[in-house]
Request: fold
Amino acid sequence: MAQQFYFEDLEVGYEIAPLEKNPTTQQLVKYAGASGDFYQIHYDKDFALANKLSGVILHGALKNAFLGQLMTDFAGDAGWLRKLSVQYRAMDMPGAKLLAKGRVTKKYVENGEHLIDCEVWIENEKGDKTTPGSATVALPSRQSA
Amino acid sequence: MANKVVTDEVRANVGKQGEPRVYDVERGAIRRFAEAIGDLNPIFNDEAAARETRFGGMIAPPTFCRSMGSAIPQVALDLPGFRALDGGSDWEYFKPIRAGDRITVQSKIADIRETAGRLGPMVFIVVETSYSNQFAQICVTQRSTVIRY
Reply:
């Protein structure tokens, strides 16, 4: 299991260890089945081509899930993901490596909770942020531990 | 600037609620979802390991709610095509969703607005969805934006 971060361990600007994902067409089919999103642009190449796409594309919600994983890994079992926002700005295709990344933008105490705000995003091989967003996690504090 | 598509009549849909839907959360469905997104975290996959954590058992990954679709009130728009894009979501998490929970999902239209896009009017429909458990506790809220053009 990864290390448990405490509120005091982190400073603004801290970069979260990137999460690498290599989505395949098989993963898109699994995700369609597990989520119930059967829009054909995610698994039927002919359908995608007929819709002026260059091939099947990732579900935006799958990229949302990758960012969810980044942040629940970061929060650890003693932390809690409070908020997660994502915007789907550009398409991603299977067969290419993606990185889910994040950086601490703010740390503060609110209603007794030790909160960390982060900027998060999915980055493609060219370094473009196709799916930017933000997240807030509550972390344990060494003072109240 | 006067709206072309989002008329007062269309705006009247704001506040409209969809029928609630009820889901029993199965442990296998959580595990299948975690496998599909490639998340091996034991709290989403392994009941024995999850019991050793403060959650006391398996919980659902943050976007598992995606598998519990809601009834969204239809908004009739006078647009030339039927193109729609998922613009993104804002999630807020209050309580874990656990294997064995009975979750009630309800959506409402929170906002409808229009901007002038390159290809003509673009309409942004904001849908707010709540996921509540069998104890009437709100576990998750989701605010998602659908773009139609």
